[in-house]
Design goal:
The protein is of the alpha+beta class and 231 residues long. The chain has two domains: 77 residues, Glutaredoxin (3-Layer(aba) Sandwich); 136 residues, Glutathione S-transferase Yfyf (Class Pi), Chain A, domain 2. It contains ten helices and four strands. It has a four-stranded mixed β-sheet with strand order 2-1-3-4. α1 packs parallel to α3. The longest helix is centred in the middle third of the chain and has 33 residues. The structure holds glutathione. Glutathione binds next to α1.
């Protein structure tokens, strides 16, 4: 199995969507035999030749699959004997909705807090590409956004309230066990942890306690990744 992932500088692997797949692979019991090929923002030719424009991309049994949740769906269908990451069909459909909801709502609110930090952790070859594309996406310069980024943390915390309510009642978003819906939101926290020294959550926040549990999963795989300890 081959996983094309984002190449940050000095082993900072911050792509939120790749993190969703890292956790999915571990959930399904793959701890080895995965060849990881780093792709640069500025040179995506290894995946572009196959018609993809973003990572993660998975290659398995000569099949190429892009888009994180579609990769998870492929693994679910191709390896039904391994632990399910979605649950039954209804739970899977709900997870697809949640994936759209979380991506749509949280990419911008996390990005507006950490984009300057990501810029500092991006591969040097990618800086120009990142600056041009992200400034166009966000409608202002990275510097301007960074100037107000800390002030945006309370509004992110407020936006997370529905998850906080769920996590007051259950150890995981999915209930008693982590599932793909946990990996979606966790991917965003790994995006921050692997690029930003900013503290996003208060010490007593139930989301923080959940994040600690997530960091401990699978032998502390995510905790061991290069990043900032108190994001
Ligand atoms: N919907 C896609 C989004 C993937 C995505 O946006 N990946 C980013 C890295 S986190 C990327 O490859 N961006 C390439 C670019 O901006 O040129 C998924 O879930 O896999």
């Amino acid at each position: 199995m081959i996983l094309y992932e984002l190449d940050g500088k000095e082993d900072f692997r911050f792509s939120p969507h790749v993190w969703k797949i890292n956790m999915t692979l571990l959930h399904k019991g793959w701890t080895s035999n995965i060849e990881r090929i780093p792709v640069k923002f500025s040179d995506k030719s290894p995946i572009e030749e196959k018609g993809f424009n973003t990572v993660p991309v998975l290659v398995d049994k000569e099949k190429w699959i892009g888009d994180s949740i579609k990769i998870a769906e492929y693994l679910e269908n191709e390896y039904p004997e391994r632990p399910s990451v979605f649950g039954d069909e209804t739970a899977k459909n709900t997870t697809f909705i949640l994936n759209k909801f979380i991506d749509y709502n949280f990419i911008t609110s996390f990005a507006r807090i950490i984009v300057g930090d990501i810029y500092n952790h991006i591969h040097p070859d990618d800086k120009e590409y990142f600056k041009v594309t992200r400034e166009e996406m966000m409608g202002s310069t990275i510097e301007e956004i960074s100037n107000t980024s800390k002030q945006r943390i309370p509004s992110l915390q407020k936006q997370l309230e529905p998850f906080r309510k769920i996590l007051k009642e259950n150890p995981y978003i999915a209930g008693s066990q982590p599932m793909y819906c946990d990996y979606i939101l966790f991917g965003f926290f790994m995006w921050a942890r692997c690029s930003s020294p900013k503290t996003l959550l208060d010490p007593t926040d139930p989301i923080r306690e959940w994040r600690e549990r997530m960091l401990d999963l699978y032998g502390g795989y995510a905790r061991k990744a290069r990043g900032y300890k108190d994001t």
